[in-house]
Amino acid sequence: MGSVTDVAVKKLPCLPEGTFAQKKPTVVFVLGGPGSGKGTQCAKIVQHFGFAHISTGDLLRDESRSGSETGNMIESIMKEGKMVPAEVTIKLLQKAMQESGNDKLLIDGFPRNEENRAAYEAVIKIEPKLVLFLDCSEEEMERRLLNRNQGRLDDNIETMRKRFKVFKESTLPVIEYYNSKGKVRKIDAGKPAEEVFEDIKTIFTSISQVKHCFCVIL
Ligand code: ADP
Ligand code: C5P
Ligand code: MG
Predict the structure, then answer these.
(1) Is residue 218 included in any domain, yes or no?
(2) Tally of domains in the chain
(3) Is 17 a residue whose pLDDT tops 60?
(4) Which value, to the nearest 10 degrees, does the dihedral of the CA atoms of residues 184, 185, 189, 190 take?
(5) Is residue 213 part of a domain?
(6) pLDDT at 209
(7) Residue 95 lies inside a defined structural domain of this protein
(8) Which residue has the higher pLDDT, 107 or 16?
(9) Mutation probe of ligand 2 site: the residue of 58, 76, 112, 145 with most atoms within 8 A of C-beta
């Protein structure tokens, strides 16, 4: 029988904030213009840092292929380069987050406007740890999108220009909002993908470091 003097000191990872039962995942938003390399860099972050990647654009494309009424509505909005109503996107995002089973999530292409952000705050309510902003010139993004070759209906010059406009008018203010809260890490995304990732690595290495604390077990 142990007494209070039989003390075992073990080095354990510090517990994150929150209760045991309701441990919230670490959320990183990945934003940037169309073609800035969000998907490309997210794949690298997944490989190196064990995050799960949730692309809201992919969730919407999957839903649009379902042939449902909502799916058809999503397809016509995406073809126009416009924003899908947040109530639709947030439901798909919430489901994907619940099903991911990962405690570190990269949310790509969201929140894209104030409506997305308000829906996230009302429904999901998990403060993002960081917002990764892939900053790239429109000229370079245009070149990349025209070479993407994924058969996307929105990668044509007319729709791309509309998407650039939406990015400037609706997404940049969201990035500015998070910047005012000290959350934004801006990366020069105009460089070759491997060089961009070197800069991202520095950021993720610092947030992924497991801090240790000493727990006294009686
Ligand atoms: P986003 O998800 O931001 O729209 P993607 O990751 O799909 O962008 O990249 C768009 C296209 O540009 C893809 O064909 C991709 O291979 C290419 N690409 C991504 N990053 C770079 C880069 N740093 N330099 C050159 N091409 C890139
Ligand atoms: O991020 P991605 O380029 O895949 O997004 C493609 C399109 O999906 C956008 O142009 C927009 O029509 C739609 N979208 C949206 N809301 C989001 C993400 C994507 O309406 N949060
Ligand atoms: Mg993408």
Answers:
(1) no
(2) 1
(3) no
(4) 90
(5) no
(6) 75
(7) yes
(8) 107
(9) 112
Tokens standing for residue 171: 């997404």
Give the residue numbers spanning the domain of 37: 4-208
pLDDT tens sequence across 153-208: 999 999 999 999 999 999 999 999 999 999 999 999 999 999 999 999 999 999 88
Which protein residue's CA is at the shortest distance from atom 7 of ligand 1? 39
The residue nearest atom 23 of ligand 1, judged by CA position, is 193
CB-based burial label for 58 (10 Å; 0-12, 13-18, 19+): middle
- Among candidate residues 171, 177, 179, the one with its CA nearest the CA of residue 116: 171
We report the CATH number of the domain holding residue 200 as: 3.40.50.300
pTM listed for this prediction? 0.90
Q: How far apart are CA 57 and CA 115, in angstroms?
A: 16
Kindly state whether residue 215 falls inside one of the protein's structural domains. no
